[in-house]
TrEMBL record:
Bilayer topology: Multi-pass membrane protein
Organism: Aureoumbra lagunensis
Keywords per UniProt: Membrane, Transmembrane, Transmembrane helix
Cell compartment(s), UniProt: Membrane
Bilayer-spanning residue ranges: 6-27, 108-131, 160-177
Protein name, as recorded: Transmembrane protein 267
Amino acid sequence: MPHPKVFKAVLVCVLGGLGVELLSTWLTLPPWRRLSWRAAVDSSSHGAIGIFTWTATLLLAGQEISWKELSMAGIAAIALDLDHFLAAHSFSLFAVTRLSKRPSGHSVLAVFFLPLIGFVFSPRYALLLFVTTASHQARDALRRGFWLFGRLQTPPLPRGLYPLILLTIAATAAILLPSRIQQQPILPFFCISSENKQDSAVHKEDVEVNKTANEDNSFLSSPFDDDDDHDDDADDNQQHEESSWWWRWSGSLPVSPRSPFRKSSFSRRRRSNPKIEQM
């Protein structure tokens, strides 16, 4: 008996893929043959397929489904059709549907090149772009086949293989998918991690612990050490003011335990407790 998560992923690919395709075919029958309506149905179908495929990826990877990532998958799958307007040099739907060849973004090579944009943010977003691009082209292949470049293209894809290809795309991405905690963003200014709130909470907790330690150890210090303590406090306040812009601007950006923006609690206790300095 297959694993429940695998069964759910297969169910999502089969019912989602074939269901969306049958519904889009029914919605473009002769009573609804307007060009704008057909374009809206086609774009919505691509977005739904991207969402279903990314859902299957998260199920196979055993990770929690994120509505934010599902929204990004749907938008990315729809945005791939923007290259039609670039190739037509017009925003007219009539000009887009009269193109003599498919735009470069719909080549199979784009499945490997477009995800490189996601590496600007993180490997996770690169895999999300891979899933949405591949699922978009798999749906287009139902009518015209996969296109490599020039005149190299395959015959139209049979409907029976369509869910299997979606499941293969999801399984490939699930194998390579990093967890949200283990991923290391290349540009942290544009990435949001689940560790951010924990880091900020630990920082606030360390501040409270240091305040309590200063109050408890204040009676142990001699009056001659007041000047040194005030100097240390002034240095700490100045360093905190210099780095406070980071905390205000970055919000929930990931800060590793060894980051220079996060001081160790031992170093703060050492300055606050004169007995530690004498050891």
